[in-house]
Amino acid sequence: MRSRSPPRPCGVTPSSGEGEVPVTAPPLLALRGISKRFGAVQALMDVELEIHSGEVVALLGDNGAGKSTLIKVISGVVPADKGVIEWEGRSVQVRSPRDAQRLGIATVHQNLALCDNLDVAENLFLGRERRRAGPLGSICRLVDSGGMRREARRQLDELGIRIPDVRVPVAVLSAGQRQSVAISRAHLGEPKAVLLDEPTAALGVQQTSHVLDLVDQLRERGIGVLLISHNMGDVKAVADRAAVLRLGRNNGFFDVPTTSHDQIISSITGAASSA
Ligand SMILES: Nc1ncnc2c1ncn2[C@@H]1O[C@H](COP(=O)(O)OP(=O)(O)OP(=O)(O)O)[C@@H](O)[C@H]1O
Ligand SMILES: [Mg+2]
């Protein structure tokens, strides 16, 4: 049985005007009126979204609804044309993936961005390699491969990820193991928010269950998770709230445990509009 955070009002907290006392603590991450156009395509239009620490928010919508674009905006890959990103109640600029990382936002993109020819440990530490102690590290810039392998092993064990040998190239891993490595890599930077773009899309039943267990663990550690999925089973199993995008616009916010499959599906297909 997966534990969820206590129910929270659906939708977004109204921004308080001057002199008003805010009704709740600010969300970890809030998007206010985010718009993005690619040439003739209006990928996002006035999108609102809130994620609190220790909750899983599912981001749903048909193909082309704007889900990945929204994650790219939050993670600094694509700049928004308009709108505000608030982090812990303050308006912030996220101009690059490094900006997002500095805030504590880690992203696992739809294409995973793992390096097939590198091993599991090297992938986990990609871009933040550990150097050997003393002059070998500081002057010769030698990496501490043994230390990184030990830390990789510890991290995988802690998250319950079953990969027997961290020295195998990720190319030989199963799809589920690759996804777990990518999530583990995101977790290694001690983020406050993790954005997952369709982490279970290519996975079988058991692998999906492992990945959903990982999502649970992120929530239990107080991390706010944004989870894109087309699978209502995943959403029902793990999400606290769901936000639906349709043709780049908000089309509904739902408290997942108290909402039926059909209500959410209607919002995705456009049979119902409740934004
Ligand atoms: N770099 C780009 N240049 C031009 N158009 C783009 C670009 N990125 C996305 N789009 C368009 O923006 C719209 C939203 O795309 P996006 O990838 O965000 O959808 P999605 O909801 O993630 O879909 P899917 O479920 O298929 O992954 C689509 O019409 C897409 O073709
Ligand atoms: Mg996508």
What would you say this structure looks like, in words?
- It is a single chain.
- Strand 1 and strand 2 (41-51) form a beta hairpin.
- The strands form two sheets. This protein has a six-stranded mixed β-sheet with strand order 6-7-8-3-9-10, sandwiched between helices.
- Helix content is 31%, strand content 23%.
- Helix 6 packs parallel to helix 7 (205-220).
- It has a domain at 29-115 and 192-269: Rossmann fold (3-Layer(aba) Sandwich), CATH 3.40.50.300.
- The chain has 275 residues and is α/β, with parallel strands linked by helices.
- It binds adenosine-5'-triphosphate and magnesium ion.
- Residues 67-68, 110, 197 line the site of magnesium ion (MG).
Annotate the secondary structure layout.
Blueprint: E1 29-38, E2 41-51, E3 56-60, H1 67-74, E4 82-87, E5 90-92, H2 97-103, E6 105-108, H3 120-124, H4 135-138, H5 145-158, H6 175-188, E7 193-197, H7 205-220, E8 224-228, H8 232-238, E9 241-246, E10 249-255, H9 261-269
Parallel strand pairs: 3-8, 3-9, 6-7, 7-8
Antiparallel strand pairs: 1-2, 1-4, 4-5, 9-10
Protein name: Sugar ABC transporter ATP-binding protein
Pfam families: ABC_tran
Domain ABC transporter: 29-272
